[in-house]
């Protein structure tokens, strides 16, 4: 068992929602996602939120890869990447002795979850979980994409509530590969999953294999990786508002006429801005849904 270094990062925003002007909006959750993307190339393997303090992000890196200077530089650069909306400071650093990480995940971070009574998401180390028509195994290397976040659940419900048999699908920002796996299990084909973070991409490959759907094409890259990928019937993007706004034209180019684009990773108040950006691209609102927490999803139809 390997020893790890645990960093506790305190995230702070310039306002309750991290708004600095009308064009840039970052929440603490968004800031945590950006910080994770900065830390992953250094060698950090796992990220989670402190159960006792939602403004503290926990990040784990193998002790042999620990680079304190690079880690603190990454934290300092968060403010620049979020236009000052979210900042990160190191609260504490400690050594974590080698332990059974599957047991730690099971105890503290990842419990089985049931979506809409039809889909159970669990890890391979879970021994007791509900029985559902769709049984999905996710072994996460990072603490996102397990279905627990409201945005992931909203997107999963879209796939469960619609007949997608034989539909072609792109899952942009696939993370653990969960949405791509649900799509394949629901009969979609072909399914392409795209992920910008190399460790997350490798994790998605592992998870699609765990679920017997290695036919899912997992690609490393951002929206530029769409080049050469054929337009699809269903385009999924559960990322964040700012990335979606920047990449929406590329998404639209890869959606067939009459196709549906399902988006999430933003709040209800962001929907009108997304609709304004979508209109010139021939995308019109099809439906919207909002969780109790304010996180929302939006589906658009291409004319």
Give your account of this protein's structure:
With 303 residues, this protein is of the alpha/beta class. It has two domains: 4-99, Alpha-Beta Plaits; 160-302, Vaccinia Virus protein VP39 (Rossmann fold, 3-Layer(aba) Sandwich). The chain has eight helices and 14 strands. The chain has helices at 28-39, 68-81, 101-109, 150-161, 178-185, 198-210, 241-253, 271-278, and strands at 4-13, 46-50, 53-62, 86-96, 113-115, 119-122, 134-137, 169-172, 191-195, 217-220, 232-238, 255-267, 283-290, 295-302. Mean pLDDT is 87; it is low at 16-24. It has a seven-stranded mixed β-sheet, sandwiched between helices.
So what's the CATH class of the largest domain? Answer: Alpha Beta
Helix residue percentage: 25-40%
The order of strands across the largest sheet is 10-9-8-11-12-14-13
Backbone CA Rg: 19 Å
CATH superfamily of the largest domain: Vaccinia Virus protein VP39
**Range of strand content:** 25-35%
Give the low-confidence spans: 16-24
Q: What's the architecture of the largest domain in CATH terms? A: 3-Layer(aba) Sandwich
Number of strands: 14
Number of domains: 2
Q: What's the total helix number?
A: 8
Overall geometry comes to globular
Q: Summarize the biggest pleated sheet.
A: 7 strands, mixed
| Sequence of secondary-structure elements | EHEEHEHEEEHEHEHEEHEHEE
Mean pLDDT: 87
What is the CATH T-level topology of the largest domain?
A: Rossmann fold
